[in-house]
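Issue 218. Parser rejects a valid record. Input:
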Amino acid sequence: AEIFARVSGYLQELKPKVDIRKTVSKDEVLAVIDVPEMKKSIEKQLATINRLKAEQQKVEALELLAQAMIKAAQASIKEAKAQQAKAQAQLTADNAERDRVQNLVNNRAAEERLLIEVRKRAESAKASKDAADAAIEAAVANVEVARAKRAAAQAEKKVAADAVTVAEKHLEEMNELMAFAQIKAPFAGVITERNVDPGDLVRDRQSDGKPLFSIATVDKVRARASIPENEAALARPGKPVVLKLRANPGLQLKGTISRISESLDLSTRTMTIEIDFPNKDRQLIPG
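Output the parser choked on:
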Protein backbone atom coordinates (compact mmCIF):
# COMPACT_ATOMS: atom_id res chain seq x y z
CA ALA A 1 0.00 0.00 0.00
CA GLU A 2 1.23 3.47 -0.91
CA ILE A 3 0.25 5.89 1.86
CA PHE A 4 -0.53 9.52 1.04
CA ALA A 5 -1.80 12.32 3.25
CA ARG A 6 -5.45 13.41 3.27
CA VAL A 7 -4.66 16.81 4.83
CA SER A 8 -1.95 19.39 4.20
CA GLY A 9 0.46 20.71 6.80
CA TYR A 10 3.92 20.27 8.26
CA LEU A 11 5.08 16.89 9.50
CA GLN A 12 5.11 17.45 13.23
CA GLU A 13 6.22 14.03 14.41
CA LEU A 14 7.66 10.87 12.94
CA LYS A 15 7.31 7.90 15.27
CA PRO A 16 10.70 6.52 16.42
CA LYS A 17 10.54 3.07 14.84
CA VAL A 18 9.03 4.27 11.56
CA ASP A 19 11.73 3.57 8.98
CA ILE A 20 12.38 1.15 6.18
CA ARG A 21 12.49 -2.52 7.13
CA LYS A 22 10.63 -1.79 10.37
CA THR A 23 7.55 -3.86 11.16
CA VAL A 24 4.36 -2.04 12.08
CA SER A 25 0.96 -3.27 13.24
CA LYS A 26 -2.48 -2.43 11.87
CA ASP A 27 -3.65 1.14 12.74
CA GLU A 28 -0.30 1.98 14.29
CA VAL A 29 0.43 5.72 14.08
CA LEU A 30 3.35 6.36 11.73
CA ALA A 31 3.43 10.17 11.72
CA VAL A 32 1.50 13.24 12.85
CA ILE A 33 0.79 16.27 10.65
CA ASP A 34 0.37 19.71 12.21
CA VAL A 35 -2.73 21.43 10.77
CA PRO A 36 -3.24 24.65 12.84
CA GLU A 37 -5.79 26.10 10.41
CA MET A 38 -8.04 23.09 10.88
CA LYS A 39 -7.67 23.30 14.66
CA LYS A 40 -8.79 26.94 14.56
CA SER A 41 -11.73 26.00 12.33
CA ILE A 42 -12.79 23.32 14.83
CA GLU A 43 -12.57 25.83 17.70
CA LYS A 44 -14.67 28.29 15.71
CA GLN A 45 -17.22 25.59 14.93
CA LEU A 46 -17.44 24.66 18.62
CA ALA A 47 -18.12 28.31 19.46
CA THR A 48 -20.83 28.38 16.79
CA ILE A 49 -22.46 25.26 18.25
CA ASN A 50 -22.41 26.77 21.75
CA ARG A 51 -24.06 29.94 20.43
CA LEU A 52 -26.72 27.96 18.57
CA LYS A 53 -27.42 25.87 21.66
CA ALA A 54 -27.81 29.05 23.72
CA GLU A 55 -30.31 30.35 21.17
CA GLN A 56 -32.10 27.00 21.28
CA GLN A 57 -32.37 27.21 25.08
CA LYS A 58 -33.71 30.75 24.77
CA VAL A 59 -36.42 29.60 22.36
CA GLU A 60 -37.28 26.67 24.64
CA ALA A 61 -37.65 29.13 27.53
CA LEU A 62 -40.02 31.23 25.40
CA GLU A 63 -42.06 28.10 24.67
CA LEU A 64 -42.29 27.30 28.39
CA LEU A 65 -43.25 30.92 29.11
CA ALA A 66 -46.01 30.76 26.48
CA GLN A 67 -47.24 27.49 27.98
CA ALA A 68 -47.37 29.14 31.40
CA MET A 69 -49.25 32.08 29.91
CA ILE A 70 -51.83 29.68 28.45
CA LYS A 71 -52.37 28.04 31.82
CA ALA A 72 -52.64 31.43 33.54
CA ALA A 73 -55.16 32.69 30.96
CA GLN A 74 -57.19 29.48 31.24
CA ALA A 75 -57.24 29.92 35.02
CA SER A 76 -58.40 33.52 34.49
CA ILE A 77 -61.23 32.27 32.26
CA LYS A 78 -62.31 29.84 34.95
CA GLU A 79 -62.22 32.55 37.61
CA ALA A 80 -64.03 35.06 35.37
CA LYS A 81 -66.76 32.51 34.60
CA ALA A 82 -67.27 31.99 38.33
CA GLN A 83 -67.52 35.76 38.78
CA GLN A 84 -69.88 35.92 35.82
CA ALA A 85 -72.19 33.29 37.33
CA LYS A 86 -72.16 35.08 40.66
CA ALA A 87 -72.84 38.45 39.02
CA GLN A 88 -75.63 36.94 36.89
CA ALA A 89 -77.30 35.51 39.99
CA GLN A 90 -77.03 38.83 41.80
CA LEU A 91 -78.33 40.69 38.74
CA THR A 92 -81.32 38.35 38.47
CA ALA A 93 -82.09 38.82 42.15
CA ASP A 94 -81.67 42.61 41.98
CA ASN A 95 -83.89 42.86 38.85
CA ALA A 96 -86.58 40.83 40.60
CA GLU A 97 -86.34 43.04 43.68
CA ARG A 98 -86.50 46.14 41.48
CA ASP A 99 -89.63 44.91 39.75
CA ARG A 100 -91.22 44.08 43.11
CA VAL A 101 -90.43 47.52 44.60
CA GLN A 102 -91.61 49.17 41.37
CA ASN A 103 -95.01 47.52 41.83
CA LEU A 104 -95.13 48.63 45.44
CA VAL A 105 -94.31 52.20 44.48
CA ASN A 106 -96.90 52.11 41.74
CA ASN A 107 -99.45 50.97 44.33
CA ARG A 108 -98.16 53.59 46.79
CA ALA A 109 -97.16 50.83 49.19
CA ALA A 110 -93.48 51.89 49.21
CA GLU A 111 -91.57 55.10 48.96
CA GLU A 112 -89.78 56.30 45.82
CA ARG A 113 -86.49 56.40 47.76
CA LEU A 114 -86.54 52.61 48.21
CA LEU A 115 -86.99 52.14 44.45
CA ILE A 116 -83.96 54.33 43.75
CA GLU A 117 -81.79 52.22 46.07
CA VAL A 118 -82.97 49.00 44.47
CA ARG A 119 -82.31 50.34 40.97
CA LYS A 120 -78.75 51.31 41.99
CA ARG A 121 -78.11 47.78 43.27
CA ALA A 122 -79.44 46.34 40.00
CA GLU A 123 -77.25 48.69 37.97
CA SER A 124 -74.24 47.74 40.10
CA ALA A 125 -74.97 44.04 39.56
CA LYS A 126 -75.25 44.60 35.80
CA ALA A 127 -71.91 46.43 35.84
CA SER A 128 -70.35 43.48 37.69
CA LYS A 129 -71.84 41.10 35.11
CA ASP A 130 -70.48 43.19 32.22
CA ALA A 131 -67.05 43.31 33.87
CA ALA A 132 -67.06 39.50 34.22
CA ASP A 133 -68.04 39.15 30.54
CA ALA A 134 -65.21 41.46 29.54
CA ALA A 135 -62.77 39.54 31.73
CA ILE A 136 -63.75 36.29 30.01
CA GLU A 137 -63.25 37.83 26.57
CA ALA A 138 -59.85 39.22 27.59
CA ALA A 139 -58.77 35.88 29.05
CA VAL A 140 -59.88 34.02 25.91
CA ALA A 141 -57.93 36.51 23.81
CA ASN A 142 -54.90 36.00 26.07
CA VAL A 143 -55.15 32.24 25.55
CA GLU A 144 -55.14 32.69 21.77
CA VAL A 145 -52.18 35.08 21.95
CA ALA A 146 -50.25 32.68 24.20
CA ARG A 147 -51.02 29.75 21.88
CA ALA A 148 -49.76 31.77 18.91
CA LYS A 149 -46.57 32.56 20.83
CA ARG A 150 -46.17 28.90 21.74
CA ALA A 151 -46.62 27.84 18.12
CA ALA A 152 -44.06 30.42 17.00
CA ALA A 153 -41.65 29.28 19.72
CA GLN A 154 -42.11 25.64 18.70
CA ALA A 155 -41.35 26.51 15.08
CA GLU A 156 -38.30 28.51 16.13
CA LYS A 157 -37.22 25.65 18.39
CA LYS A 158 -37.29 23.21 15.47
CA VAL A 159 -35.28 25.64 13.34
CA ALA A 160 -32.79 26.10 16.19
CA ALA A 161 -32.54 22.32 16.76
CA ASP A 162 -31.96 21.76 13.03
CA ALA A 163 -29.26 24.43 13.04
CA VAL A 164 -27.53 22.74 15.97
CA THR A 165 -27.75 19.35 14.25
CA VAL A 166 -26.27 20.72 11.01
CA ALA A 167 -23.47 22.44 12.93
CA GLU A 168 -22.70 19.26 14.90
CA LYS A 169 -22.64 17.17 11.70
CA HIS A 170 -20.24 19.70 10.18
CA LEU A 171 -18.07 19.41 13.30
CA GLU A 172 -18.11 15.62 12.96
CA GLU A 173 -16.89 15.97 9.37
CA MET A 174 -14.14 18.32 10.51
CA ASN A 175 -13.11 15.92 13.28
CA GLU A 176 -13.10 13.05 10.79
CA LEU A 177 -10.83 15.09 8.54
CA MET A 178 -8.73 16.09 11.54
CA ALA A 179 -8.24 12.40 12.31
CA PHE A 180 -6.33 12.12 9.03
CA ALA A 181 -3.62 14.29 10.62
CA GLN A 182 -2.49 11.01 12.13
CA ILE A 183 -1.01 8.79 9.43
CA LYS A 184 -1.80 5.18 10.34
CA ALA A 185 -0.77 1.84 8.92
CA PRO A 186 -3.68 0.27 7.02
CA PHE A 187 -2.51 -3.23 7.90
CA ALA A 188 0.34 -5.05 9.60
CA GLY A 189 3.45 -5.18 7.47
CA VAL A 190 6.94 -3.90 6.76
CA ILE A 191 7.80 -0.33 5.77
CA THR A 192 9.49 -0.61 2.40
CA GLU A 193 9.67 3.11 1.58
CA ARG A 194 9.81 6.39 3.55
CA ASN A 195 9.94 9.71 1.71
CA VAL A 196 9.30 12.23 4.47
CA ASP A 197 11.09 13.73 7.48
CA PRO A 198 9.93 15.86 10.43
CA GLY A 199 9.37 19.47 9.38
CA ASP A 200 8.61 18.63 5.75
CA LEU A 201 5.62 20.26 4.12
CA VAL A 202 3.10 17.54 3.46
CA ARG A 203 0.28 17.96 0.96
CA ASP A 204 -2.78 15.84 0.33
CA ARG A 205 -1.02 14.70 -2.85
CA GLN A 206 2.72 15.21 -3.14
CA SER A 207 3.89 17.19 -6.17
CA ASP A 208 6.47 14.53 -7.02
CA GLY A 209 3.83 11.81 -6.82
CA LYS A 210 5.77 9.85 -4.22
CA PRO A 211 3.90 8.39 -1.25
CA LEU A 212 4.84 9.28 2.29
CA PHE A 213 5.29 5.60 3.08
CA SER A 214 4.94 2.26 1.40
CA ILE A 215 3.99 -0.77 3.46
CA ALA A 216 4.06 -4.38 2.31
CA THR A 217 2.90 -7.64 3.81
CA VAL A 218 5.77 -10.09 3.25
CA ASP A 219 4.70 -13.05 5.40
CA LYS A 220 3.04 -14.40 2.26
CA VAL A 221 4.00 -13.46 -1.28
CA ARG A 222 2.25 -13.94 -4.56
CA ALA A 223 4.39 -15.16 -7.44
CA ARG A 224 3.27 -14.72 -11.03
CA ALA A 225 4.49 -16.85 -13.90
CA SER A 226 3.66 -16.98 -17.61
CA ILE A 227 2.83 -20.40 -19.08
CA PRO A 228 3.35 -20.97 -22.85
CA GLU A 229 0.27 -21.57 -24.95
CA ASN A 230 1.01 -25.23 -25.57
CA GLU A 231 1.16 -25.91 -21.80
CA ALA A 232 -1.55 -23.47 -20.63
CA ALA A 233 -4.28 -26.10 -20.83
CA LEU A 234 -2.37 -28.25 -18.31
CA ALA A 235 -2.33 -25.53 -15.63
CA ARG A 236 -5.12 -25.89 -13.12
CA PRO A 237 -5.57 -24.51 -9.57
CA GLY A 238 -4.20 -26.99 -7.01
CA LYS A 239 -1.51 -28.48 -9.27
CA PRO A 240 1.98 -28.65 -7.71
CA VAL A 241 4.56 -26.01 -8.56
CA VAL A 242 8.29 -25.71 -7.89
CA LEU A 243 9.68 -22.18 -7.88
CA LYS A 244 13.37 -21.59 -8.68
CA LEU A 245 15.02 -18.17 -8.56
CA ARG A 246 17.98 -16.98 -10.63
CA ALA A 247 19.10 -14.85 -7.70
CA ASN A 248 19.30 -17.92 -5.45
CA PRO A 249 19.89 -21.05 -7.57
CA GLY A 250 19.97 -23.36 -4.59
CA LEU A 251 16.53 -22.32 -3.33
CA GLN A 252 13.53 -24.36 -4.43
CA LEU A 253 10.09 -23.54 -3.08
CA LYS A 254 7.22 -25.99 -3.41
CA GLY A 255 3.62 -24.88 -3.66
CA THR A 256 0.44 -25.24 -5.66
CA ILE A 257 -1.23 -23.06 -8.27
CA SER A 258 -3.56 -20.65 -6.48
CA ARG A 259 -5.33 -19.15 -9.50
CA ILE A 260 -5.10 -18.86 -13.28
CA SER A 261 -6.19 -16.11 -15.67
CA GLU A 262 -8.10 -18.50 -17.98
CA SER A 263 -6.99 -16.51 -21.05
CA LEU A 264 -3.87 -15.92 -23.13
CA ASP A 265 -2.01 -12.66 -23.51
CA LEU A 266 -2.40 -11.83 -27.21
CA SER A 267 1.07 -10.28 -27.44
CA THR A 268 3.03 -13.10 -25.77
CA ARG A 269 0.64 -16.03 -26.27
CA THR A 270 1.11 -16.99 -22.62
CA MET A 271 -1.27 -17.44 -19.68
CA THR A 272 -0.58 -15.98 -16.25
CA ILE A 273 -0.77 -18.18 -13.17
CA GLU A 274 -0.36 -17.13 -9.53
CA ILE A 275 1.09 -19.07 -6.63
CA ASP A 276 0.91 -17.95 -2.97
CA PHE A 277 4.02 -18.91 -0.99
CA PRO A 278 4.46 -18.61 2.79
CA ASN A 279 7.41 -16.32 3.53
CA LYS A 280 7.82 -16.28 7.31
CA ASP A 281 11.62 -16.37 7.07
CA ARG A 282 11.53 -13.73 4.30
CA GLN A 283 13.47 -15.76 1.78
CA LEU A 284 11.48 -14.03 -0.96
CA ILE A 285 11.73 -10.29 -1.44
CA PRO A 286 8.78 -8.50 -3.07
CA GLY A 287 9.64 -6.92 -6.40
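Fixed in the parser; the record now loads. The chain is about 50% helix and 25% strand.
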